[in-house]
Write a structure and sequence with these properties.
The chain is α/β, with parallel strands linked by helices. It has two domains: 218 residues, Rossmann fold; 271 residues, UDP-N-acetylmuramoyl-L-alanine:D-glutamate ligase (3-Layer(aba) Sandwich). β17 and β18 form a beta hairpin. α2 packs across α3 and α2 crosses α4. It is elongated. The relative contact order is 0.10. Its cofactor is K(+); Mg(2+). This is Bifunctional NAD(P)H-hydrate repair enzyme. It catalyses: (6R)-NADPHX = (6S)-NADPHX; (6S)-NADHX + ADP = AMP + phosphate + NADH + H(+); (6S)-NADPHX + ADP = AMP + phosphate + NADPH + H(+); (6R)-NADHX = (6S)-NADHX. Its EC number is 4.2.1.136, 5.1.99.6.
């Protein structure tokens, strides 16, 4: 695992910062490095920019803004610094930054006096609030954030967009909508999930003088999924490999009128390399299933008894898409639950799980809820789930066991309490806001599962492939009109990394 792909809580980043200072790097030196890194990113993206407007609060985040102002001024740029905290109120390294800015010829204005100037600048820099912000954003910061968001210029956030919770990805009211976030020392967990993708823009990590050893030896919360992971997860097959070596997946679901979901799950599983794929569904869906993918084996499921032999033969079972919550779905669910072996439970299967198997806890299943289903499983509100997605996923794991895939922007994969058992996907796009995306994700994860990939890794790599495939498809044809069934061919390419 790359150390710079690790995700840290606010407290863990503070420890990294303190350890680096103890190793002989002064705190103000780190602040200077942060300011230089941010200015370098600004000039790399906007080389024609000549005027910066920097909104500064208090604390070290404000100090970072003062350093950017000083360095930009020394580079010959026109700088307008708008202070929301009186400069003489800043302390320690931030006070040194104020002194540096003044020495460099930066004019410091009260933010009210500079609002009109902000409208005529080339780039706006957000240095209002840092990672320690927790409560609701109050005046005057809420008004300054509104001012920044109303301006047409590109916005660069220092460390984290003001108004975003660095640990959870939840908004603390209105947040600065940045085009670029330059985050310092290490990646903050909350930059990659929840509502964060709406406000972070592109995220660039500036590790400053924090050593690789310090990062490697320190506590962290989770890991960001990266494409390189697939090189190790999905090894090349032996020349003598045959279908029996690649697992047998059984997909169960598809009441009359809802067969598309199970067909997509099954076809996607086949495209990602499952050796055999069986589909147990309502009889009306058998002809379209075989027309769509003649390689799958399809059987009518009138009740749970019809699938007992299939469940026993399968390497793993995916149940839930289009299953319904009536007697038919309940009977199929009961048969699957009574049998041993790995399971992936999704969609209606999650509702039946909560209704009839609330006390069931298994280590060999994967549950894939979206926020609404997670709220149902935890008997709480969707808002509570989204307020802290990581804690919600942990709560699901503690209650139900196994691996939890909490879908949504910044999909979370959690298989335990340790940092090596939590992953976030930074991939995917708004084109995925269409029906069936969760069904094909289930097919991808289940396909890897039957091919012998352990549950947690199957979930993590399946989520990764899903997001990458969607991004590939959107890059080629655009986001609008992207369908779930479009992903299978792109996912197949990603599932064969040696071919790329």
């Amino acid at each position: 695992m790359m150390a710079n792909a690790r995700l840290y809580s606010t407290r863990q980043v503070q420890v990294l910062d303190q350890r680096t200072i103890e190793q002989g790097v002064p705190g103000f030196a780190l602040m200077l490095q942060a300011g230089q890194a941010a200015l370098d990113e600004i000039m790399k993206r906007f080389p024609q920019a000549r005027r910066l407007c920097i909104f500064c609060g208090g604390g070290n985040n404000g100090g970072d803004g003062y350093v950017v102002a000083a360095l930009a001024r020394r580079q010959g740029l026109d700088v307008q610094l708008l202070a929301l905290r009186a400069p003489n109120q800043l302390q320690d390294e931030a006070a040194e930054a104020v002194h540096l800015a003044r020495e460099s010829g930066v004019t410091i204005d009260d933010w009210h006096q500079g609002v009109e100037i902000a409208k005529t600048t080339d780039v706006i820099v957000d240095a209002l609030l840092g990672t320690g912000t927790r409560g609701e954003i109050r005046a005057p910061f809420d008004r300054a954030i509104a001012c920044i968001n109303a301006a047409p210029q590109p916005v660069i956030a220092l460390d984290i967009p003001s108004g975003l919770n660095a640990d959870t990805g939840a908004l603390l009211g209105d947040a600065v909508e940045a085009d670029l976030t330059v985050t310092f020392i290490a990646r903050k967990f909350g930059l990659y999930t929840g509502q964060a993708p709406d406000v972070t823009g592109e995220i660039v990590l500036a590790p400053l003088s924090v050593s690789e050893t310090t990062l490697t030896d320190s506590d962290y919360t989770g890991e960001l999924l990266v494409p390189e992971r697939l090189q190790n997860t999905l090894p090349r097959r032996r020349p003598t490999t045959h279908k029996g070596h690649c697992g047998h997946l059984l997909v169960v679901g598809g009441q009359p009128g809802f067969g598309g979901s199970t067909i997509m799950s099954a076809e996607t599983a086949a495209r990602l390399g499952a050796g055999l794929v069986s589909l147990a569904t309502a009889s009306v869906h058998i002809p379209p299933a075989l027309t769509r993918c003649p390689e799958m084996m399809v059987r009518e499921a009138r009740n749970g008894l019809d699938i007992e032999d299939l469940v026993d033969k399968a390497t793993a079972v995916l149940i839930g898409p289009g299953l319904g919550q009536g007697a038919w779905g309940q009977g199929l669910m009961q048969t699957v639950m009574n049998a041993a072996g790995p399971r992936l439970v999704d969609a209606d299967g999650l509702h039946l799980l909560a209704a009839g198997y609330g006390g069931e806890r298994r280590d060999d299943w994967i549950l894939t809820p979206h926020p609404g289903e997670a709220a149902m499983l935890l008997d709480c509100s969707v808002a509570e789930v989204q307020a802290d997605r990581y804690q919600a996923a942990l709560a699901l794991h503690r209650r139900y066991g196994g691996v939890i895939v909490l879908k949504g922007a910044g999909t979370l994969v959690v298989g335990g309490e340790g940092p090596g058992e939590c992953f976030i996907s930074p991939f995917g796009n708004p084109g995925m806001a269409s029906g069936g995306m969760g069904d094909v994700l289930g097919g991808m994860i289940a396909s890897l599962l039957v091919q012998g990939v352990p549950g947690l890794e199957a979930a993590a790599s399946g989520v990764l492939i899903h997001g990458l495939a969607a991004d590939d498809a959107a890059r080629e044809h655009g986001e609008r009109g992207l369908l779930a069934s479009d992903l299978a061919c792109y996912a197949r390419r990603r599932a064969n990394p040696d071919r790329r």
